[in-house]
Design brief:
One of its GO terms (molecular function) is DNA binding. It is found in: Cytoplasm, Stress granule; Nucleus, Nucleolus. Monomer. Interacts with PABPC1; the interaction is RNA-dependent and stimulates ENDOV activity. Its cofactor is Mg(2+). The protein has about 250 residues and is of the alpha+beta class. The chain has a single domain, classed as 2-Layer Sandwich (archaeoglobus fulgidus dsm 4304 fold), CATH 3.30.2170.10. The protein has six helices and eight strands; from the N terminus they run αβββαβαβαβββαα. It has helices at about 5-20, 90-110, 135-140, 165-170, 215-220, 230-245; strands at about 45-50, 60-65, 75-80, 120, 145-150, 180, 190-195, 205-210. The protein has an eight-stranded mixed β-sheet with strand order 3-2-1-4-5-8-7-6, sandwiched between helices. Helix 2 runs parallel beside helix 3 (about 135-140). The chain is globular.
Length: about 250
Amino acid sequence: MSAAPAEDLVKRWESEQARLRQEVVEEDTEDWQRSADFSGLERVGGVDLSFIKGDDVNACAQLVVLSYPDLEVLYEDSQMVTLTAPYIAGFLAFRETPFLLDAIQRLEKNQPELLPQVVFVDGNGLFHYREFGLACHLGVLSGLPCVGVAKNLLQVQGVYKNDEHQSQIAALQKGGDSFPLTAASGKVLGKALRSSDKSSKPVYVSIGHKISVDTAVRLTHTCCRYRVPEPIRQADCRSREYLRIHFPAADT
């Protein structure tokens, strides 16, 4: 791709992100979110894309729906997809969202009673260059509450993986402990969460849509058997297993 078309594409995508960003709801909208034990929450979703090794175009788009609070798999959908949009840092959602949204819409059409009440996304939400990561994109387009949970720190808006950040991580004593990820503007874009007593490495939680950051952090912690929330972990495991079965020679 030559420089000019890439520049045009970036401008178009920036404009689209800015437009959709206006639709993000950064507060709790559901009754279950306001309950101390999330009473009324019965189904949590997780999405992920897994790629064939050495191939950044063909992937397995995965949706899982788990029961809550038991975290047992109620539904799974594995679909091979071909990504057409190029990868450009900060615009991952334009590559991945269409296929994840398709999976949610298939479920809504075929088994609406299993539609998740909240979706966990392997990636960021507000904690993003322009406060509109994958979790926001999917949330706005699906209309569902979404939570972004990233395994690695995206160094944006004045948040850096520096000595201060490392000392804050070291101060997280137990599962459920967290500290805010505060932008240079002073806005809290997410929180670093020690998700499990067993894992000293935090995850980075930010809201996608229709949920507050504190509720997102609390919910993420309740969904963690290990470091990564179970809906995302199951989506990752099942998409990788699908590729192993159907593309054994690719060594995923």
